[in-house]
Amino acid sequence: xxxxxxxxxxxxxxxxxxxxxxxxxxxxxxxLNQALTPYDxxxxxxxxxxxxxxxxxxYTSLHYGPxxxxxxxxxxxxxxxxxxxxxxxxxxxRVYEDRPGSCRMYPLARxxxxxxxxxxxxxxxxxxxxxxxxxFDKNAGxxxxxxxxxxxxxxxxxxxxxxxxxxxxxxxxxxGKLEGAGSDKxxxxxxxxxxxxxQIIEDSLLKEFNVPGDILKKIEKDDEALxxxxxxxxxxxxxxxKITFGE
Length: 247
Known about the structure:
The chain is of the alpha+beta class.
């Protein structure tokens, strides 16, 4: 935890209020170095009416973790705009309803720990007090829990925790740098999900797994169901974990 982060509990009062009236409005949308999760990309590409391939090509850059070899997706850097988010406007975020999970959480940071015995997740939170932000010390009368509820983060956290579990599994089973075909499969199934769907439907990518017809039909339209299948497919392709359905 860095010096500008202050641990908080869910029942702590959060002396913070973000408003267009604050003099720092939109400053947190600049000088970005922001990684996007698979669920962030799913929501954003659907908001914009784009395929995952077109969204990734237009708005993001790809690099690989130097130690893990896993793909990392970030907004394309744009020095000319002060590295601001491509979706920020003078009036605020133009994709606000589908903004990334980290934007919803701000100025909170979240970490999790999962029990190996029960699988139960414990959450930890901290306030990020950055110099440019003028939202602090404004009594909004909300606890941390109430703030989070107002930001609709639960679905994002649930989906992003699946990614964290997958990365943790990779680090346990395949420590070190994932390269070549392994990284490509990770990217295809989790980030470029419309291409993943296309390969399932047109190239019978999942033929060997005897996927039930009702699930195949569902993933033709349901991106979240497709993402779940993608995680299972990656677990099988990388770690040999059998794909099961109905769980």
